[in-house]
């Protein structure tokens, strides 16, 4: 996209020079989040750590004026009856605005900046977010079309991991991405990007287009893979259906603190579809659809690390069985404010070795695990 195009927003209003006093923060590549908590409290996140800036607004009215200007940029309205805005700026940054009376202490503006530089798995290994061996393992997972859920909290690096994994999708595949706000940076030549449409105040509720609507429609678009930015509701059922019906290599993210919690959340989300499916059938569908859960965490030193890579092994009775393949094992605190540790393979050979052999990646898997895998 050209510079001219990147500044052309909905209804022609999305020129980022209109963000007033916070423009230096938007222009600073070291800043990942800009958080305005009122006229005298402007924070940023750098390197995973929050810090207060010296930037201030004249008063609450100035913060509100900026919030309304941002809403106008994205073709929205900060309506007093429902003073909430959640949208994407022209440069790809995500913006959320909450105004009084919902925000008790004044207008709140939260901006998650769009990362211009694409981070690869090799970059993540060099930065200590994963190990070299785990980097090679994840390359195999991406290449061999495994269905993967990336689990983690807000700001834990889920989208970054999804972008890194997507780099290893074959360029001959047709990929459909579905997001609330388009953040993915896929490099393949055949990518179809879909974005949800929320209902604006005063408009017909039937105008809403949800992730579930787009996911159902995507199945009619002849995708090889479907990538959903995040599942948080009944669309989880459709995602599992897609993974189970030939769309192998599909990816999504979920908010959870542990791989086992991610599976439990999936169960709850599928139940939101109100299909009266027995819980054992739900679990069987999850076990059949998924290959891996990658757990990403932002640790106390601000570094985002992959803490677990867990394989979905199948079912035992009514329980989804899981094998922990990799984990981050921390070392005692050295007092330097950093978290030290190492990424360890559990010694369990993944159950999908035959799948890896089929895709010709057995040697790379062996390198990742540090062993020689005999060819059948």
Describe this structure in words.
This protein is α/β, with parallel strands linked by helices. It has two domains: 3-112, Beta-Lactamase (2-Layer Sandwich), CATH 3.30.450; 121-369, Rossmann fold (3-Layer(aba) Sandwich), CATH 3.40.50.300. Helix content is 28%, strand content 24%. The chain has twelve helices and 15 strands. It has helices at 3-6, 23-27, 60-73, 121-126, 132-143, 158-166, 211-218, 235-244, 259-271, 279-289, 353-358, 362-369, and strands at 31-36, 42-46, 49-52, 84-88, 94-98, 108-112, 148-152, 175-179, 191-195, 225-228, 251-255, 292-298, 304-316, 319-330, 341-345. A nine-stranded mixed beta sheet has the order 9-8-10-11-7-12-13-14-15, sandwiched between helices. A six-stranded antiparallel beta sheet has the order 3-2-1-6-5-4. Helix 7 runs parallel beside helix 8, helix 8 crosses helix 10 (279-289) and helix 9 crosses helix 10 (279-289). The radius of gyration is 22 Å and the shape is globular. The N and C termini lie far apart (47 Å). Mean pLDDT is 89; it is low at 1-16.
């Amino acid at each position: 996209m050209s510079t001219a195009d990147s500044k052309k927003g909905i209804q022609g209003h999305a020129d980022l020079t209109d963000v007033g006093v916070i423009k230096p923060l938007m222009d600073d590549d070291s800043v990942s989040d800009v958080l305005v908590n009122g006229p005298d409290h402007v924070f940023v996140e750098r390197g995973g750590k929050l810090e207060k800036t010296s930037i201030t607004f004249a008063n609450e009215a100035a913060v509100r004026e900026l919030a309304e200007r941002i809403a106008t940029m994205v073709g929205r309205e900060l309506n007093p009856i429902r003073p909430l805005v959640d949208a994407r700026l022209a440069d790809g940054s995500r913006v959320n605005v909450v105004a009084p009376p919902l925000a008790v202490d004044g207008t709140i503006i939260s901006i998650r900046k769009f990362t211009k530089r694409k981070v690869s798995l090799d970059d993540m290994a060099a930065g200590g977010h994963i190990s070299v061996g785990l980097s090679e393992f994840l390359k195999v997972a991406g290449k061999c079309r495994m269905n993967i859920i990336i689990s983690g909290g807000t700001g834990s690096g889920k989208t970054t991991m999804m972008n890194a994994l997507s780099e290893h999708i074959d360029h001959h595949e047709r990929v459909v991405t579905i997001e609330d706000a388009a953040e993915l940076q896929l490099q393949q030549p055949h990518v179809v990007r879909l974005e949800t449409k929320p209902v604006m105040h005063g408009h017909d509720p039937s105008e809403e287009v949800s992730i579930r609507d787009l996911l159902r429609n995507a199945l009619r678009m002849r995708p090889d893979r479907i990538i959903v930015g995040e599942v948080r509701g009944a669309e989880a059922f459709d995602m599992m259906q897609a993974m189970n019906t030939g769309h192998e290599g599909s990816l999504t993210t979920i908010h959870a603190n542990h791989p086992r919690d991610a599976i439990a959340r999936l169960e709850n989300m599928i139940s939101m579809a109100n299909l009266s499916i027995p819980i054992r059938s739900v679990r069987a569908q999850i076990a059949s659809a998924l290959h891996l859960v990658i757990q990403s965490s932002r640790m106390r030193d601000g570094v985002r690390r992959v803490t677990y890579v867990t394989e979905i092994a199948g079912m035992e009775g009514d329980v989804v069985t899981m094998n922990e393949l990799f984990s981050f094992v921390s070392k005692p605190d050295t007092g330097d404010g950093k978290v030290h540790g190492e990424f360890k393979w559990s010694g369990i050979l993944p159950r999908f070795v035959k799948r890896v052999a089929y895709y010709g990646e057995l040697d790379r898997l062996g390198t990742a695990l540090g062993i020689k895998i005999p060819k059948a």
